[in-house]
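Encode chain A's predicted structure.
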Amino acid sequence: MIESASIAAAPEAPATPMRADMLDLAFALEGHELPLAHRAALADALQRVLPWLDEGSGVAVHRLNVAAGGGPLALLSGRTRLTLRLPRARVADALALCGTTLEVAGRTLRVGAAQPRELLAFGTLFAHFVAADAEVGEGGEAAAGDEGAFLGAVQQELAALGVSARVICGRHQTLEDGTLGGYGLMLDGLGREDSRRVLERGLGPHRLWGCGVFVPHRSAAAVGQAA
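Encoded structure for chain A:
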C-alpha cells in the first residue's frame, strides 16, 4: 500500500534486538564544519582509508547529524557520529578508521573510538533520503522527479526482498548541490524478518552517500523533513 506523507502518525511498534548479519559501528568524530554538499567527498575520504569500501561491499554510511550553519556550511557537534552499517565480518577491518584524520572537501575530521550498535527490528522504519536517480547529474539541478515511477521502483525492490509494508512517501528533495534527486520514505507494518531485511539491505543506490539507509522510527511526521 502506498500513501502520502500527510497521514496521521503510525502507531509505535516495539523494538526487538536481534543478532543480524550486520550492525552499526559508530565512530566518535571531531571537527567543526563541512560543506552542506559533503556526502560524495566523505565517501571518497573513507575509501582512501578503507580501499575495500565500495557499493558492492554491503556497507552503508549513515548521514552525518549536522546543523545548518548559514550559507553553504553545516556544523558538527560533539555528539556527531560517523556511523557505518556493515557486515559483522568487516568490523575488524573498519576499525582501521580509529585514530585517522579524514580530509573532506578541504575540512579535517578526526575519527575516534568506535561503538558497535545492534540493529533493532521496529515495525516502522524511516530513511531520510532514498535516491530516485541511479546516476548523479553532471551539473544543474536534478529533475523534479516522478513520484509514481519512484514508488513503482520501491515496490519492485520490496517484492524482490520478500518484504510487505505500507509505503509512505515524502516530498522530492535533492542532494549534492542538486545533482541527485530522491525522497524521504517510511515503511510501516513491518514484521520482524521484513524489518531485518530492510535494515540490512536498504533501498535504492548510493548507499555510501547515506541514501536508502533505514532507521527505526515511531512517527510518520518526519517523512517530510529535509535530508
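Residues 59 and 143 are 28 Å apart (CA to CA).
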